[in-house]
């Protein structure tokens, strides 16, 4: 069990080191296969760990933190410590890995879907002059995410959290010759650094009260109400930043400046899902601060609506999918925030399948059209790329939640859990979930009807090129095919009204709150409502964008508001950037130029003048130096006589 976890963690790191040490001495294709192999070896380690946890299903002994956290459930996990990493007084932190149901699910998703994306990258990045650097970055990214989900204490989780931010900065800005890519990378780094800071402050509070960052200690100590709320708020800040939830969501669409496989990796299986994992992992703290937990649910409900509305006016194929990611992560936050942790994690898993599929099929289209991403120029592409067309359709139907595709099984249960609360805010969350399903159907099939059906546009006919008679390299087509199958059937792992093995699996690590367990009636009713809403969105998209039977409302104010993404960027520029720029300009004008720069010039001129004077008395004549020595001695004697 623990051997598998260490193998899973260290294999991508080994791949990164090998590529870095090899440098330009190894061929580009060798670097690509080293990275791909290392991630698939990590997936093998994750399977090993999963089977080990499964074998301990009925173990009566609690090992590590799993027993006391789980509230009486049989322990299914193990905490392994390599060595004590930090120690100061009563505070110590070990280099630990926690292997339990929650971490193994995340390890399987990160390494499995991540491995398919890295394999896809071989074909997508073929010919890029910086291929080696790309594959070193991407394997390090996978290592960072595996450290985050496998770390056995909160400090290691924070280390992985920070390394994921660093890796995303490197990958988003990979094409650093583009100013837009550099700006996007900096924006992602700064906004995530804000979340990192709130998490670090939360950990300082925990250390002050418990002298520990151990899961077992921190999750089983009842802090004061103020301390608990502050810790939960700090954790929520980190989760919202990493998962691009309001108000820290503006970095995610700009992250599309990176290569398409990077977008797939960040959005589907790794970085943006970290916030959901954090809430599920630290749920005992959030349950003591129930108000903060419900704020997390409200944040998710608001984000899923805002992102869905903005997606309606996007024209970049990757940005439409990016806003759908924000919306779907909002569903996960809603599930975790109401206490249905397993439902949120289940949607995280199915989302990894269909969102990676959508990005990778979009990448096939972009690749075939020489980098074109504007959906207004891509009409009729499906006739030339039927495989891409049908695979994208499978991902789209899963995204909308149409049965029997995977999104239906996971998303509906989240909305039903909101109804199970039975409170006024629970029903508000429920309405938001249904409205989100309508928006998802509308913006997803707006994209579909604008890109794939019909005769190819003149732009498509002019720019389309195949790959030796195929729609892409085999390294691109095989992962897309596998993900299409997973997006279609992956949701059958659980259908909450009838069977729920996924919830049972996660129960020892993240038990769903009783208040968030819907009845079968609520499940069936919610499923019917969400499916009908999704179908209504699809029908509306068909009527507007395919048949042109309904004209798009002019509504210039609302269109302008959506195109400006509700003016969040403008607000942040005015509140943070503009005052900072004004202060910097004022200090430059009033202090730096007249004081620092001018003083520096004066000091320099004075030093030069002094040096010139001293240079004149350096004659090189012995009699001159003797004269100065005698004068100096006479001056000293005179000074003593006067003093006496």
Task: Give the SSE layout.
Layout: H1 2-22, H2 28-55, H3 66-69, E1 78-88, E2 91-99, H4 101-124, H5 131-150, H6 154-172, H7 179-210, H8 215-219, H9 225-242, H10 251-254, H11 260-269, H12 274-281, H13 283-288, H14 290-311, H15 317-338, H16 341-368, H17 381-384, H18 386-400, H19 406-420, H20 424-451, H21 458-463, H22 474-489, H23 501-506, H24 520-546, H25 556-563, H26 568-616, H27 622-643
Antiparallel strand pairs: 1-2
Helix pairs in contact: 1-2, 1-5, 2-4, 2-5, 4-5, 4-11, 4-16, 4-22, 5-6, 6-7, 7-9, 9-12, 9-14, 11-16, 12-15, 12-16, 14-15, 14-20, 15-16, 15-19, 15-20, 16-18, 16-19, 16-22, 18-20, 18-22, 19-20, 19-24, 20-24
Keywords:
mainly alpha; globular; 27 helices; 644 residues; two-stranded antiparallel ribbon; 73% helix
Describe the overall structure.
With 644 residues, the protein is mainly α. Helix content is 73%, strand content 3%. The chain is built from 27 helices and 2 strands. A two-stranded antiparallel ribbon has the order 1-2. Helix 4 (101-124) packs antiparallel against helix 22 and helix 15 (317-338) packs antiparallel against helix 20 (424-451). The N and C termini lie far apart (89 Å).
Which class of secondary structure composition applies to the elements? mainly alpha
Task: Determine the number of helices (DSSP H or I, runs of at least 4 residues).
Answer: 27
Helix-strand pattern, N to C? HHHEEHHHHHHHHHHHHHHHHHHHHHHHH
Q: Tell me the distance between the termini.
A: 89 Å
Strand content: under 5%
Helix content: over 70%
Shape: globular
State mean pLDDT (0 to 100 scale): 88
Order of strands in the sheet with most strands:
1-2
Largest sheet: 2 strands, antiparallel
* Topology, number of strands: 2
Uncertain segments are 60-74
Using only C-alpha atoms, the radius of gyration works out to 30 Å
């Amino acid at each position: 069990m623990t051997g598998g976890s260490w193998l899973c963690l260290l294999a991508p790191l080994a791949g990164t080191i090998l590529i870095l040490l090899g440098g330009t001495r190894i061929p580009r294709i060798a670097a690509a296969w080293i990275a791909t192999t290392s991630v698939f070896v990590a997936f093998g380690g994750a399977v090993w760990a999963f089977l080990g946890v499964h074998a301990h299903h009925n173990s009566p002994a609690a090992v590590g933190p799993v027993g006391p956290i789980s509230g009486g459930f049989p322990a299914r996990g193990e905490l392994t410590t390599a060595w004590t990493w930090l120690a100061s007084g009563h505070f110590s932190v070990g280099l630990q890995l926690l292997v339990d149901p929650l971490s193994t699910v995340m390890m399987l998703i990160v390494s499995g879907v991540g491995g398919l994306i890295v394999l896809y990258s071989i074909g997508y990045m073929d010919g890029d002059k910086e291929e080696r650097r790309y594959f070193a970055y991407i394997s390090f990214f996978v290592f960072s995410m595996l450290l985050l989900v496998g770390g056995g204490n909160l400090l290691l989780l924070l280390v992985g959290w920070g390394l994921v931010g660093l890796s995303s900065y490197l990958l988003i800005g990979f094409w650093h010759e583009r100013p837009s890519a550099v700006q996007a990378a900096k924006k992602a780094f700064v906004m995530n650094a804000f979340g990192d800071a709130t998490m670090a402050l939360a950990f300082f509070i925990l250390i002050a009260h418990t002298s520990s960052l151990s899961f077992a200690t921190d999750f089983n100590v009842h802090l004061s109400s103020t301390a608990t709320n502050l810790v939960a708020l700090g954790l929520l800040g980190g989760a919202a930043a990493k998962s691009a939830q309001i108000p820290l969501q503006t970095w995610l669409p700009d992250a599309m400046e990176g290569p398409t496989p990077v977008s797939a990796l960040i959005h589907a299986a790794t970085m943006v899902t970290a916030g959901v994992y954090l809430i599920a992992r630290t749920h005992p703290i959030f349950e003591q601060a129930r108000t903060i937990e419900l704020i997390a649910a409200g944040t998710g409900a608001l984000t899923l609506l805002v992102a869905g509305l903005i997606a309606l006016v996007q024209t970049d194929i990757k940005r439409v999918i990016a806003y759908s990611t924000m919306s779907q992560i909002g569903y996960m936050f809603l599930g975790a925030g109401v206490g249905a942790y397993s439902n949120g994690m289940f949607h995280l898993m199915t989302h990894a399948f269909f969102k990676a599929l959508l990005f990778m099929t979009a990448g096939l289209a972009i690749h075939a059209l020489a980098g074109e991403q504007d959906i207004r120029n891509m009409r009729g592409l499906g006739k030339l790329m039927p495989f891409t067309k049908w695979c994208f359709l499978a991902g789209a139907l899963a995204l909308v939640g149409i049965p029997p595709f995977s999104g239906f099984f996971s998303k509906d249960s989240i909305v039903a859990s909101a109804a199970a609360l039975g409170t006024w805010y629970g029903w508000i969350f429920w309405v938001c979930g249904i409205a989100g399903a309508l928006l998802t159907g509308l913006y997803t099939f707006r994209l579909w009807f604008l890109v794939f059906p019909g005769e190819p546009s003149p732009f498509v006919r002019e720019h389309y090129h195949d790959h030796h008679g195929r729609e892409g390299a085999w390294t691109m087509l095989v992962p897309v095919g596998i993900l299409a199958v997973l997006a279609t059937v992956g949701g059958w792992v659980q259908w909450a009204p009838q069977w729920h093995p996924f919830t049972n699996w996660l129960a020892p690590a993240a038990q769903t709150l009783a208040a968030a367990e819907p009845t079968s009636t609520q499940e069936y009713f919610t499923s019917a409502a969400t499916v009908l809403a999704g179908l209504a969105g699809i029908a509306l998209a068909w009527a507007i964008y395919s048949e042109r039977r309904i004209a798009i409302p002019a509504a210039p104010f609302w269109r302008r508001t959506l195109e400006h993404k509700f003016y969040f960027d403008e607000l942040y520029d005015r509140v943070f950037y503009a005052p900072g720029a004004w202060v910097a300009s004022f200090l430059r004008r009033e202090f730096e130029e007249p004081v620092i720069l001018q003083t520096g010039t004066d000091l320099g001129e004075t030093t030069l003048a002094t040096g010139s004077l001293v240079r004149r008395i350096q004659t090189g004549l012995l009699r001159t130096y003797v004269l100065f020595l005698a004068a100096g001695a006479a001056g000293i004697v005179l000074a003593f006589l006067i003093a006496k």
